[in-house]
């Protein structure tokens, strides 16, 4: 190759090398989408024991833990492992020129969330919910890293293997190898004029600090003359206080003691207010539809099996106009309530078909029951991006006085008026707001309240 060709080739390759080097810098950390990252860390069991104890030395702490039947060594080992994950995550983020702050989830505040452009929760689903609770902007991005999959399912976090591959996890975040979606959240509005516990505004407390109130509800000064009968329930115009928190999973409305009846008035999507008694009301988002709401409403294959067996008996009885088994069951039921008859055998309706194998639609009843239960339970889930809420009433009291429709369903707006002396609105199982007699509340979903979450499933598919 002649000198002229070498010079010409060099003049072409040099800019190309510069361009390639620049492109490499861009795809690593020079144009990172995040500049300030907040790590919201769970508090390990060991750290929790340390924080709540007044032990002078570790030996005393170890003795106390062992006396309660717990493993001190396992607790401390898990604490060290969690601390190593935090340290590795911090190191990798700073290698990308990202400013990093680490905060304990119990000390996490709105100012921390406002400072950051990326929030990484390190823990389980509870830590993720805590991290989301202080986010008030759709521009903040949230991702969860499950630090201990052996003890936490982490359904709101990324895949459970990422805690072992922190450098790659951070690289993908910095390279933008993820998608974003918005999980809807529940907004709570309360009326400020019924102030529980003689305060001007509801007091937001940690759910673990609540003690049952055995005295009648107290009324705030200046509200003594308000009509407490609430024959005309306040409309939304009076609900001028919007709580700063948003519920990502659910809001639970109940008395502070589970043994007490929860009583309230409820209106769904503008319907007439109805008074209810129950063990509490669950109102969830699509995110929360796989949690408490699901476990409250799900059916078991054994229950479906019993219903299918009863259905088959009814069909046979209709065809033959004879119902000996049903008559026998009714006699046993009457005996059980009116007085036990020793000559009648005890029968468990859930096991009524176990003595013989039946089939329906070409399947055994057991197979069919499992298939029906699975399909029914799957239909309880709905999308985290759905604009509506699901509700479930626990142990609804239904009689001639208290009447209501289905104990669970969907709504866009739910209005409530408390009829409890020690009621609470519990947010995502961690925060609680007093909800005492006469206080109106409104639960709704607003698009501007959605929280932006990272989805790495596309990049995980090939892992």
UniProtKB/TrEMBL annotation:
Alphabetized Gene3D superfamilies for the sequence: Probable inorganic polyphosphate/atp-NAD kinase, domain 1 (3.40.50.10330), Probable inorganic polyphosphate/atp-NAD kinase, domain 2 (2.60.200.30)
SUPFAM superfamilies reported in the protein's UniProt record: NAD kinase/diacylglycerol kinase-like (SSF111331)
UniProt keyword terms in alphabetical order: Kinase, Signal, Transferase
GO molecular function, one term: NAD+ kinase activity
One CC-aspect GO term: mitochondrion
Domain of life: Eukaryota
GO biological process: NAD+ metabolic process
Cleaved signal peptide residues: 1-24
Name used for this protein in its record: NAD kinase 2
Organism per entry: Schistocephalus solidus (Tapeworm)
């Amino acid at each position: 190759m002649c000198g002229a060709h070498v010079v010409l080739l060099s003049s072409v390759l040099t800019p190309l090398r510069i361009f390639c080097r620049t492109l490499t810098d861009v795809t690593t950390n020079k144009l990172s989408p995040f500049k300030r990252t907040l790590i919201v860390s769970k508090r390990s069991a060991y750290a929790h024991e340390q924080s709540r104890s007044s032990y002078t030395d570790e030996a005393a702490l170890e003795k106390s833990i062992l006396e309660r039947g717990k493993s001190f060594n396992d607790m401390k080992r898990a604490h060290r492992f969690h601390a190593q994950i935090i340290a590795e995550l911090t190191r990798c983020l700073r290698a990308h020129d990202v400013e990093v702050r680490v905060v304990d989830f119990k000390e996490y505040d709105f100012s921390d969330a406002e400072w950051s452009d990326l929030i990484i929760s390190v823990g389980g689903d509870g830590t993720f919910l805590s991290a989301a609770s202080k986010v008030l902007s759709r521009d903040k991005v949230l991702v969860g890293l499950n630090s201990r999959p052996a003890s936490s399912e982490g359904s709101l976090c990324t895949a459970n293997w990422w805690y072992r591959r922190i450098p790659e996890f951070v690289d993908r975040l910095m390279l933008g190898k993820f998608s974003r979606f918005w999980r809807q959240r529940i907004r709570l509005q309360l009326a400020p004029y019924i102030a529980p516990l003689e305060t001007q505004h509801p007091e937001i407390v940690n759910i673990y600090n609540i003690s049952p109130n055995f005295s009648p509800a107290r009324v705030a000064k200046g509200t003594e003359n308000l009509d407490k009968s609430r024959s005309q329930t306040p409309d939304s115009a009076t609900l001028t206080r919007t709580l700063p928190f948003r519920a990502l999973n659910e809001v639970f409305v109940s008395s502070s003691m589970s043994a007490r009846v929860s009583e309230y008035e409820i209106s769904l999507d503008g319907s007439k207010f109805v008074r209810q008694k129950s063990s509490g009301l669950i109102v969830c988002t699509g995110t929360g539809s796989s949690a408490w709401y699901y476990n409250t409403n799900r059916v078991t294959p054994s229950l479906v099996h019993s219903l299918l067996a009863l259905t088959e008996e009814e069909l046979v009885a209709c065809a033959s106009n004879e119902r000996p088994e049903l008559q026998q069951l009714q006699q046993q039921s009457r005996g059980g309530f009116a007085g036990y008859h020793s000559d009648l055998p005890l029968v468990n309706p859930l096991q009524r078909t176990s003595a013989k194998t039946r089939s329906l639609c070409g399947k055994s009843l057991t197979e069919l029951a499992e298939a029906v239960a699975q399909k029914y339970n799957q239909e309880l889930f709905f999308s985290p991006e759905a604009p509506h809420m699901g509700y479930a009433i626990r142990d609804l009291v239904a009689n001639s006085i208290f009447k209501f429709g289905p104990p669970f369903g969907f709504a866009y707006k739910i209005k409530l008026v408390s009829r409890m002396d020690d009621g609470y609105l519990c947010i995502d199982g961690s925060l609680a707001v007093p909800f005492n007699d006469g206080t109106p509340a409104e639960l709704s979903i607003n698009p501007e309240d959605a929280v932006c979450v990272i989805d790495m499933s596309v990049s995980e598919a090939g892992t």
